[in-house]
Amino acid sequence: LQFLYLIGKTHGERREVWPFAHAGDMRAVALLCVAALTQTSGAVPRLNAFADRFWEWRSVTAPITSDDLPRTAVVRPHGWAPNVSAAALQAQEARYEALAAELSALRGGDAGFAAWGAADQADYWAMTAALNRVYW
């Protein structure tokens, strides 16, 4: 919210004044703040479900690497072993394409995406980055 700066009439000094002087106005501001903090789009539960499915799939298909990037999100199932057969790689590619299409559909175009909260948009971009890393 924006503060109003008023010039004091008697002393000519500058002071900060809260723009809502009445108690009723303060209640309205409090309700608006709560509504803004709790507002979520209908896509959020679907995005969370997508993230669960993605990381479950990725924990099985992510290759073993020895680079310096931590893989904290990849938790391998007990008894996991890499499968690099031609059939497994084709299945991974098909699943990747399906996940990419699903994530794109979640966005629902620019107008729908603009209605998402900032945190939800950040989660979407984080999932996009994780998915793009699979392709790279």
Keyword list:
single chain; 136 residues; mainly alpha; 5 helices
Topology:
Layout: E1 4-7, E2 14-17, H1 23-38, H2 43-61, H3 86-107, H4 109-114, H5 118-135
Oligomerization status of the protein chains: single chain
State the share of residues found in helices, binned by percent.
Answer: 55-70%
Largest sheet: 2 strands, antiparallel
Radius of gyration using CA atoms only: 24 Å
Number of helices: 5
Q: End-to-end span in angstroms?
A: 42 Å
Question: Which strand-content bin applies to the residues?
Answer: 5-15%
SSE succession: EEHHHHH
What is the residue-mean pLDDT, rounded to a whole number?
74
Low-pLDDT segments, ≥5 res: 1-12, 14-26, 28-39
Structural class: mainly alpha
Order of adjacent strands in the largest pleated sheet:
1-2
What characteristic shape results from the CA principal axes? elongated
Number-wise, the strands total 2
Account of the 3D structure:
Strands 1-2 form a two-stranded antiparallel sheet. The chain contains five helices and two strands. The chain has 136 residues and is mainly alpha-helical. Helix content is 60%, strand content 6%. The model is unreliable at 1-12, 14-26 and 28-39 (pLDDT under 50).
Concise structural overview:
The protein has 136 residues and is mainly alpha-helical. The protein has helices spanning 23-38, 43-61, 86-107, 109-114, 118-135; strands at residues 4-7, 14-17. The protein is 60% helix and 6% strand.
